[in-house]
Amino acid sequence: MLPTEHRLRRREDFATAVRRGRRAGRPLLVVHLRSGATDPHAAGESPPPARAGFVVSKAIGGAVVRNKVKRRLRHLVRDRLDRLPAGSLVVVRALPGAGDADHDQLARDLDTALQRLLDGVPPTRGQGREPR
Predict the structure, then answer these.
(1) Model pLDDT for residues 78-126, shown as the tens digit of each residue
(2) Buried b vs exposed e over 73-107: b needs ≥16 C-beta within 10 Å?
(3) pLDDT tens, 33-52?
(4) Coil, strand, or helix at residue 43?
(5) Full-prediction pTM beyond 0.90?
(6) What domains sit in the chain, N to C, each tagged with a CATH number?
(7) Which residue, among 107, 132, 125, has the nearest Cα to 31 in the 3D structure?
(8) Are residues 17 and 33 in contact, defined by beta-carbon separation less than 8 angstroms?
(9) Which helix (H) or strand (E) holds 63?
């Protein structure tokens, strides 16, 4: 389970990550990352934790399949939260092939996408976009 303080819940947070963050696409998922805190924190106060949200549409499959994919993605992201800068917003959007993928395939795609975003490697043609 992803701890409550690490969950994206508000629509505005999802929109910020998707519209103003960087994007890395893989065959099974797309990861959007908005690095760092958007609001400066008070002196002496700890920075906000990295937070993650998930988008799993009906294109993935029925309710059982969608929930299975969400559970797997939450588990995978939970284990990788320590790699993310404090205050980061992450949105993981599952693509239609994710419903048939196993845990290891999802983990590989997530690791590759996060590594690309965290290393600052410019996206290849058709993947990612410049922030606005």
Answers:
(1) 999 988 988 999 999 999 999 999 999 999 999 999 999 998 755 444 4
(2) bbebbeebbeebeebbbbbbbbbeebbebeeebbb
(3) 998 754 554 455 778 899 99
(4) coil
(5) no
(6) 4-37+49-118 (3.30.230.10)
(7) 107
(8) yes
(9) helix 63-78
